[in-house]
Amino acid sequence: MSRTGRAVVAHGQDFDIREYPVPDPDPNTVLVRQELAGICGTDLHMWQNGIPGEMLLGHENVGIIDKLGKDVTVDHVGNAVKEGDRIIFAPGTPNGAYGFQSDPDTAPHFGGGFADYIHLYRPDTLFIKTDLAPEIAVMIEPFTVGVHASMRGGIQIGDTVVVQGSGAIGLVTLMCAKISGAAKIIVVGGPAGRLELAERMGADVTVDIEDITSADERTEIVRSHTPRAAGADVVFECAGFLPAIPEGLGYTKYGGTFTEVGQFVDMGSFDFNPNRMLMRRNVTVEAVWGSTYEHFVRGMPILERNEFPFADMVSHVLPLSRLAEGFDALNGDYRLTGETVVKIAVGAGAE
User: Fold this and answer.
1) β-pairing, 314-318 with 284-287?
2) In DSSP terms, which residues pair with 185 in a beta bridge?
3) Straight-line distance from the first to the last Cα atom of the chain, in angstroms, rounded to the nearest whole number
4) Are residues 193 and 272 in the same domain?
């Protein structure tokens, strides 16, 4: 009798759990038994806008090789692999992405991370074997976004850096900025529990948006912590909220760099004056779109050194049946059962 597995199907702002037959992997593909899948801000923003049709979400994953397709013997960097090895994978491939599969009732069914299995069926999928604990390994995909952002932001030794947003993307960008040579890092975000973790990860100054509700006041505080109150060398917008963009440009010094990291989903437009916001400040504007295989190869050894409290970022692990609670918490006050939410992961075996 063939095996079946569960997958969460998102539609609108609702979630259903369905059973599908578990496939045997084709040649050059891999079947993974899921351990953890993180809820990404992109998942959240898509859900906030209303999922069109039906979709299998989830693209921040770690799992165990359940079955190897014929001719699969090594991972992307040449490590020998076998069934039972733990791996991470890049959700984006040259042939499409995992975690955004529409028409879930059509095979291969397991194309998203919020499920018991994921079938790495797309040609040329990057996967890398790791001995990291699942709570750390699940952070690799967001960590690569921080790697990409820091490289694109062009941080130089001694720079003053501002990170807007203290969620997962903000925190990994903070860590990447630190190892890239930033001398002072200012984090603007909240709630307080997230900012405490930011300080443990190397933030020199934190500004709590729940306490300082005025954008003008926050700007004055941020600039007061920069050399000659002139603004930061590099600013990273990782919050994913439109009002953070003009505010972040106000943090940036004349001739500095503003790097957009948080707008992975179309969240609309805002009033924009290029003369005042860009030209008069002589600002360089950069933007990142996800990450590439290069960022996984660069980021994985840093993650494996485990010099930061990566595991503490996974504040909550929920079963598949409670996925909606995780989305509600991230859509509200970033608290779940009274505790501050940083990264929520879904564990297929957490029932």
Assistant:
1) unpaired
2) 161
3) 24
4) yes
Domain that holds residue 240: 145-287
DSSP class per residue in 114-147:
SBSEEEE-STT--EEE--S-HHHHTTHHHHHHHH
Q: Tokens representing 309?
A: 């409290």
Beta strands 96-97 and 92-93, pairing class = antiparallel
Domain count, the chain: 2
Q: What is the pLDDT of residue 350?
A: 66
- Alpha-carbon 153 to chain mean position: 17
Q: How far apart are CA 249 and CA 258, in angstroms?
A: 6
Averages of pLDDT over runs of 10 residues in the chain (351 residues) are: 90 97 95 97 93 96 97 97 98 94 92 97 95 97 98 98 97 98 98 97 98 98 98 97 97 98 91 94 95 97 95 95 96 91 88 64
H or E segment to which residue 148 belongs: helix 140-153
Residue 280 forms part of a structural domain: yes
User: Domain with 162 in it: what CATH number?
Assistant: 3.40.50.720
Task: Estimate the share of the chain in helix, then strand, then coil, as percent rounded to the nearest 5.
Answer: 30, 30, 40
69 CB burial (10 A radius; 0-12, 13-18, 19+): middle
Pairing type for strands 117-120 and 60-68 reads unpaired
Specify if 293 maps to a domain.
Answer: no
Running DSSP on this structure, what letter comes out for residue 229? Answer: G
Residue 148 sits at the vertex; the CA angle it makes with 114 and 165, to the nearest 5 degrees, is 70
Q: Is the residue at 138 inside a domain?
A: no
Tell me how far apart the alpha carbons of residues 303 and 136 are, in angstroms, rounded to a whole number. 8
CATH number of the domain encompassing residue 48: 3.90.180.10
- A 10 A CB-CB count for 206 gives 20
Q: CB burial class (10 A; 0-12, 13-18, 19+) of residue 337?
A: exposed
pTM of the predicted model as reported, rounded to 2 decimal places = 0.95
CB 248 within 8 A of CB 242: no
Tokens 């960022």 belong to 295
Residues 162 and 280 in one domain: yes
